[in-house]
Specification:
The complex is a heterotetramer, with two copies of chain A (249 residues) and two copies of chain B (457 residues). Chain A is of the alpha/beta class and 249 residues long. Chain A has eleven helices and five strands, in the order αααααβαβαβαβαβαα. Chain A has helices at 14-17, 32-42, 46-57, 62-82, 88-109, 132-142, 156-166, 183-193, 209-212, 227-235, 240-247, and strands at 118-123, 146-152, 170-174, 200-203, 218-221. The longest helix of chain A has 22 residues, at 88-109. With 457 residues, chain B is of the alpha/beta class. Chain B has one domain (14-455). In chain B, the strands form four sheets. Chain B has a seven-stranded parallel β-sheet with strand order 8-7-6-5-3-10-9. A two-stranded antiparallel sheet of chain B has the order 1-2. A two-stranded parallel sheet of chain B has the order 4-11. In chain B, a hairpin with a 2-residue loop joins strand 12 (318-319) and strand 13 (322-323). Chain B is globular. Classes of the chains: A alpha/beta (249), B alpha/beta (457). The structure holds zinc ion (ZN) (3 copies). One zinc ion binds at residues 163, 219, 223, 268 of chain C.
C-alpha cells in the first residue's frame, strides 16, 4: 500500500492546532486540607476525594468542607470544561467524586444537605444510542440539583404524575427517534391541564427546535451540557417563555 | 460584433485535463487557489420557506446555513471550502440584502480563518430578474437592478456569478417541440448576445471591487433540457437532444470568459469541461452529490476535470446527522478528499478513469462530458469561430457525430431516430449567421414572450 | 462456554481484501450475490413523525420510501440494491406490522424484477426492545417479542439483522467516565454472552424460513463512543478511546457469525472490516453518504472492503431533487458505480488506496479501519481466543500499540495521555476471564440498571 | 484511457430493455380525407394538418372535421403517450397542429368553437428552470380547454381578480422555489373570501404535497401531465376536497 507523503490537500488536523494547553487547577483555598480536597476533586479521583474529605472532617465542619472545598472544586472543573481544557469524562468523574464527598459530609451532619432545586428527567422511549439523559443527570447532579431520574420507556402519565408530586423547577426529555418524540407535546399538554407551567427542555437526535417550540412549555436543548445553566434559569424563576426566548431562536 | 471569439484550445490534449488543476488558477481573498492542485468542496445552501420575509430573518437563515458548513469543515478536518449563496429574488430586488448577507458571510469566513486557519471563500450568485416575458433585457428597471446587486455584493464576496436567462423564452418553446433549430437560436444567438452585453459590465464591477468574475451557466436552457430528459423511464425530452443542447451551451457560456470572466465557472454548468478545455480556467461541477437538487445520469463523470465540487442547492433543514449544509459539506468534502488523495498518491489518472467509466456509456449526456469528447467538441467550437451561431452548430454536429460513431454508446430506437433527425435538420441550416437569424426571426415571431429588440435584433 | 471461538484468519493477508468481494458471498432471493464481485448500494429510509400511528399509515410510508428507492434505480440504471428497514419500536412490538411491511416490500421488489429485471433484496432489522434497565434480557415478554418479530419478518425478508443491546447499561456508565475496563466488560463479556444466547435462535429462524441471518453490530456501544468522540472540536470522549472500543467491538460482534450468521453484516458495524478479515463473510459499511445520520471521521476508508454501501438512516421527506430515499439511493448508487468501474478496469487497488489515504491519518478511528490495521487486530483476536474477554482485550491492546507505533498518526497531548492511560489499565487487568468477571461484578454492582442475572452471571 | 469491457456491474440500460415498440396510429375514420387529418395530426405535422383540413373542408362540415378528425386524432395521441410510445414533444407538436386545424375550421364556421371549460394558469414568481406552466398550458389546450395563461411573476391580486371575472373550473400554479410558494395560500385565501371554491392545483420543484394540502382549495400536482385529467374532474363538478382525496394522499 502506498501512502501519500503530503496530506495537506486531504485533511487539516485542527484538533492539534487548536489544542488548549493543559492547566493546573487554580488554588482555591488557603487551607491545606481543603485545597487537597479541591485538587483530588479536580483530578476526578473519587477515592482520593473520600480520603481527603475524611481528613478535612477531622478539623472542619462538614458544611465548611462542602462550601469551601467541594463546591469551589466543582466550580473549577466547570471552568476548565468551559475553557476547553477538560473533556466530558473529567467532569463526570469529578461529579462522581463530589457526590461521594458530599455523602461523607452528610453522614457526619446526620442529615442530607439541601439541594438547590429538583429537576425531573426522562426518556419517553429509549434508543440504543440514547446516552443524553445519562449525561444530563450527571451534570445536574454535579451542579447541586436533586435529580429525579425516571429512566427510559416512561409513559406520559408517569411523567405528569411525578411532576405533580415533586414540583420540579424543570423537566427534561430526550429522544433520538422522530417516532418517539410525539410523547413530548402530550406530556406538555398534561402539565398545562394541571396548571403546571414547568419549563420542559427537550433534546436529542431527531428532536428539532422547530418541533419543540411548536408546543407550549417546550424549550429546545441543543446539547446536554446546557442542562445545568438552564436549570439555574428555571430555579431563578424564569418562565418557559423567557427561557425559550433566551435559549432558542 | 466586436467580441473576439476563442480560436485555440488551452489544453493541447484531453489527457492533460485533470480534476483539481487548471492552467490558470484563481485565488480567493484568503489566498486559497482554485484549480491550484486540489479539489475544493463548494456548498450551496438554500433558505427555507418564510425566511425571505425580511432581511433580518434571511440574515439569520444564512448565518446558520453558512456557519454550519464552516463548522463542519473544522469538525472533519477539511482544509478549504467555497460557500455559494444563490440569491433568492428578494436578495437581488433589494441589493442591500444581498450585500448584508455577503458581508455577514465574509465575516464568518474571517472568523474561521483567524480561529482555525480554515481557507474559505464566498460566491454570490445574483438572481437574473430579467424575465424576457415581462422586461426588456437591457433597458428596464430589472436590468439596472441586477447590475446594482452585483456592485453591492462584489464589495464582500470572493466570486460573483449569474445564471443569465437570455433566450429562455425561445428555448422553453423549442425544447418541448423537439426543435433543435430553436434551441440553437435560443442558446447561441440570443443567449450569446445577451451575455455579450451583460458580462463586460460584470467583469468591470469585479475588477473595481477586487473580486473574481466567476462565470455563467446555461442553467436556463441546457439544464431544463437535461431535467426534462430525466432518467431512463422519462418520456419528456430525448436524451440525445439534451446532449446536443449541452454541446451548444458550451458555445454560449464561453462568452462570459471571452468577456473577461476568469472562473470558477458555476457548478450547474455541465458544459464546463468543454469550456475548461478551451480556456484553461478553473470550473465548478456537480454530480452525484447534487442529487438533493435533481437527478442526473452523469453522477461521477462530471468530477473528472472539476476544480470545485458542489451540490447545486439544498434547502436548509435538520437531518438526524445535523443540518443539510453540514451534511452536504461532509459528503462533498469526502468526495474532494478522495480526489485529493489520488493526486497525492499519483493515482489521479486511475481515479479519473473510474469516474469516466461509471457514466461514459450510461447515457448520451455522460458520454459527451468525458474529457476526450468534451475536448473534441471544444475543438469544433474554436475551429468554427466565425460566429456564435457557427460554433454552436459545429459543436452540436460534432457532438452528434461522436455519439453515433461509438458503437458502445447505445440508444433506444426512438433516441437514435430523433438524433438522426436533429443532425439532418442542423446540416440543412444556412451557413451564415445573418441568414439563420433572419430565418429564426420569422419562424418564432409568434412566440409570445419573444422581443427581438431585447437582443438588438 | 460451548461456543467455538474463531481461531484463524479467512484472509491470509490484508492485501487480499477488497470492496465488492467476500470469500463467502451470499445470495438474496432474486439470485443477486452480495460479496460476489460488485458493491451494491443499501438504502435505509426512516419513517416520518406520525407515520407510526397505525399499520396503515406505516405501510403507506414504507411503500413510498422503498418504492422511491427502487424507482430511482430504474431512472439511473443501477443494477441492484438492498433496502433496509430498521424497525421503529412499533414494528417489533407488533410483529404483524413488521411482517406486513416485509411482505409489501417483497412484493414491490418482485414487481420491479418482473418489469425491469432490477435485482433487489430486503433487510429487516428488528428493534431490540430488551432495555437492560426495564427487562430481563432472556426471560421477559420483550425477549419473546423480538424472537416473534424475527419469525414474522423472516418469511418475506431476504436478510434479518439486529443491533443487540447486551452490556449497554454498563457501557453507558463507563464511556463517559473514561473507563476502558468498563467498556471491555460491557462489550466483550456482557455483549458477547447476550449474543451467544440470542444468535443461535436467529440463525435457526433464518434457516427455517430460507432467509439470510445477516449479522449484528455494536451500535449500542462502540457507535455511542464514536458519536460522542465526534469531530475535531468535540470534547466529550477521546477519539483514542472510541478507537479502542471499536477494536473490542470486533470481538463482540464476531459472535453472531460464530453462531452461524453469514453476513452481510450491518452498515453501522464499523468493526466489520476486522470481522471480514477473520470470517471472509460479506459486510455492509457506511461512510460519507451516511452523513445524514451522523458525522464521521472515516468517510472514505470504510468503503475499502465493503460489499454493501449504505447510508445508516435518512428520514423520509422531500428535497428539491425528490424524496430522501431517492436522493440517497442516487448518491450511494454512484459511489458503488465508481467502485464497480474500478473493479472492471482493474484499478480497484488504486481506488482503495485513495479511500485509505483519505482517512488513515485523519483520526485514530480512520486509522484502525484501514485493512492492514483491521487485519492485525483480527489476528490478535484469533490468537487470543481463550475467551471473549481475552480476545477483546488483545484486540484493544494491539489496536493501541499500532496507533502508537505509527508516527504519522498524530494525537493531541490529551489524546495521547489518555491512550497511554488506557493501555496501562488494560495491561494491568487479570489474565483469566473468570477473575475479570469477578472484579467487574464487584466494581459495577452499584450501576443502577445492571442485572448480572440477565447474562447468567 | 482504459474502458471496461464488462459494464454490467456499473449500469443497466433499462431504457433499452423496456422500450415500447413503435406503433402506427390506429385507423380512426373510414373517411379517407378525415383519416388523413388524423394521420397528419398523430405525426405532429402542423403544415400537413392544415393542408389536409383544408382538403377535408371542401367536402365536410367544419364540426365534422373537428369531431371526427381532429378530436379523435388527438385522443389517439393521448393513448400513445399513456402507453409509453410517445414522448412529450410529440404530444405538444400534435397539440400545436390540432390548434392550427381548429383555427381553420373556426374560420369556416365564422365563429370560435366552444371550449370545454376555462382553466387559469400562472407562476407566482418565475425561476429559470420553470417550464412546468408551458407544458401545462399546451396539454390543456390539446385537451380542448380554454386556457387563460397569466404567465410568470403574477401578483396574488391579479390571480384572484382573473378568477373572479373568468370563473374557471380550475386554477393552476407552478413554483420551483420554496421562497415563492408562499403566494399559494394567500391566493387560496383570496378566492375563499370571494366564495370562489375553485380547485387550485399547485406543483413544481419545491412544492410538496404536505405544503399544498395544508391550505384550503390546494391540490398537489405531481406532474404536468396530470393537468388535463384534473381539469376534466373539475369540469365534471368534483369539489376540491374530492379532487384532493383522489389525487393526493
Ligand atoms: Zn443552476
Ligand atoms: Zn445505529
Ligand atoms: Zn446501527
Amino acid at each position: 500500500m502506498k501512502y501519500a507523503a503530503d496530506t495537506s490537500g486531504i485533511f487539516s488536523r485542527y484538533d492539534i492546532s487548536i489544542e488548549v494547553a493543559r492547566q493546573k487547577a487554580r488554588e482555591v483555598s488557603e487551607d491545606v486540607l481543603l485545597q487537597k480536597v479541591v485538587e483530588q476533586l479536580v483530578a476526578g479521583d473519587e477515592a482520593g476525594v473520600e480520603a481527603s474529605v475524611e481528613l478535612a472532617l477531622e478539623h472542619e465542619e462538614p458544611m465548611k468542607v462542602i462550601n469551601d472545598g467541594l463546591i469551589p472544586g466543582m466550580k473549577e472543573v466547570s471552568r476548565l470544561w468551559a475553557e476547553g481544557v477538560y473533556f466530558l469524562p473529567q467532569v463526570i468523574l469529578s461529579s462522581d467524586a463530589m457526590m461521594a464527598g458530599i455523602s461523607l459530609c452528610e453522614k457526619r451532619l446526620g442529615k442530607p444537605v439541601k439541594k438547590k432545586a429538583t429537576v425531573v428527567t426522562h426518556t419517553p422511549e429509549g434508543d440504543i444510542h440514547d446516552i443524553g439523559q445519562v449525561i444530563v443527570n450527571a451534570l445536574l447532579n454535579a451542579s447541586g440539583f436533586e435529580v429525579v431520574n425516571l429512566g427510559v420507556d416512561v409513559p406520559v402519565e408517569q411523567v405528569v404524575e411525578t411532576c405533580r408530586l415533586r414540583r420540579p423547577v424543570m423537566l427534561t426529555g430526550t429522544a433520538l427517534m422522530t417516532t418517539t418524540m410525539t410523547a413530548f407535546p402530550r406530556t406538555a399538554a398534561g402539565l398545562r391541564e394541571l396548571g403546571l407551567d414547568i419549563p420542559f427542555v427537550c433534546g436529542g437526535g431527531a428532536v428539532t427546535e422547530e418541533f419543540v417550540t411548536s408546543f407550549d412549555l417546550g424549550i429546545w436543548g441543543r446539547d446536554a451540557s446546557q442542562a445545568p445553566e438552564m436549570a439555574e434559569d428555571a430555579m431563578n424563576g424564569m418562565t418557559w417563555q423567557e427561557m425559550r426566548a433566551k435559549w432558542n431562536g | 460584433m466586436s467580441l473576439k471569439l476563442s480560436n485555440s484550445m488551452a489544453y493541447q490534449s484531453p489527457d492533460l485535463m485533470m480534476f483539481g488543476s487548471a492552467l490558470k488558477p484563481v485565488r480567493v481573498r484568503c489566498g486559497m487557489a482554485i484549480g491550484g492542485g486540489a479539489v475544493i468542496p463548494e456548498i450551496v445552501p438554500h433558505p427555507r420557506l418564510g425566511s425571505e420575509q425580511n432581511l433580518k430573518t434571511l440574515l439569520r437563515e444564512f448565518e446558520r446555513a453558512n456557519g454550519d458548513a464552516l463548522e463542519q469543515c473544522i469538525l472533519l478536518g477539511f482544509p478549504g471550502i467555497i460557500i455559494e449563496n444563490e440569491h433568492v429574488s428578494q436578495m437581488t430586488q433589494n441589493p442591500d440584502w444581498g450585500k448584508e448577507i455577503a458581508r455577514q458571510t465574509a465575516g464568518q469566513i474571517d472568523d474561521y480563518y483567524d480561529k482555525y486557519g480554515l481557507s474559505a471563500g464566498y460566491r454570490a450568485t445574483i438572481a437574473d430578474l430579467r424575465k424576457p416575458e415581462v422586461a426588456h433585457l437591457r433597458r428596464s428597471d430589472r436590468a439596472s437592478l441586477i447590475l446594482e446587486a452585483f456592485e453591492a455584493c462584489a464589495e464582500h464576496a470572493d466570486i460573483i456569478s449569474i445564471e443569465s436567462v437570455g433566450g429562455k423564452e425561445i428555448s422553453d418553446h423549442a425544447i418541448i417541440r423537439n426543435d433543435v433549430t430553436g434551441m440553437l437560436f435560443a442558446q447561441a444567438v440570443l443567449g450569446g448576445r445577451d451575455m455579450e452585453w451583460l458580462w463586460p459590465q460584470i467583469v468591470g464591477i469585479a475588477k473595481k471591487r477586487g473580486c473574481i468574475a466567476g462565470g455563467d451557466t446555461d442553467c436556463a436552457q441546457a439544464n431544463v433540457a437535461m431535467y426534462l430528459a430525466g432518467g431512463f423511464a422519462s418520456k419528456d425530452v430525448p436524451h440525445s437532444l439534451a446532449a446536443l443542447c449541452r454541446a451548444m451551451a458550451a458555445g454560449r457560456s464561453l462568452v462570459a470568459y471571452e468577456c473577461g470572466a476568469t472562473g470558477p465557472g458555476k457548478d450547474c454548468g455541465y458544459e464546463n469541461p468543454i469550456i475548461k478545455a478551451i480556456t484553461g480556467l478553473p470550473m465548478s461541477a456537480e454530480g452525484k452529490t447534487s442529487a438533493c437538487a435533481h437527478l442526473s445520469l452523469c453522477g461521477n463523470v462530471t468530477a473528472a476535470v472539476c476544480d470545485l465540487w458542489a451540490n447545486e442547492a439544498v434547502e436548509y433543514h435538520e437531518m438526524f446527522g445535523g443540518t443539510t449544509p453540514a451534511v452536504f459539506t461532509e459528503m462533498l468534502g469526502y468526495d474532494a478528499a478522495m480526489m485529493n488523495s489520488s493526486i497525492a498518491l499519483g493515482f489521479h489518472k486511475e481515479l479519473q478513469a473510474c469516474m469516466i467509466n461509471s457514466d461514459r456509456y450510461r447515457s448520451p449526456h455522460g458520454y459527451i462530458l468525458c474529457p476526450d469528447i468534451a475536448w473534441e467538441i471544444g475543438k469544433a467550437i474554436v475551429e468554427n469561430n466565425d460566429s456564435m451561431y457557427s460554433r454552436a452548430k459545429a459543436a452540436a454536429l460534432k457532438c452528434g457525430q461522436l455519439m453515433l460513431s461509438d458503437a458502445r454508446l447505445r440508444f433506444t430506437a426512438y433516441e437514435r431516430d430523433s438524433l438522426l433527425g436533429y443532425m439532418k435538420e442542423l446540416e440543412a441550416l444556412p451557413d451564415r449567421e445573418g441568414d439563420f437569424i433572419d430565418m429564426c426571426l420569422k419562424k418564432y415571431e409568434r412566440v409570445k414572450a419573444f422581443k427581438p429588440a431585447s437582443y438588438e435584433l
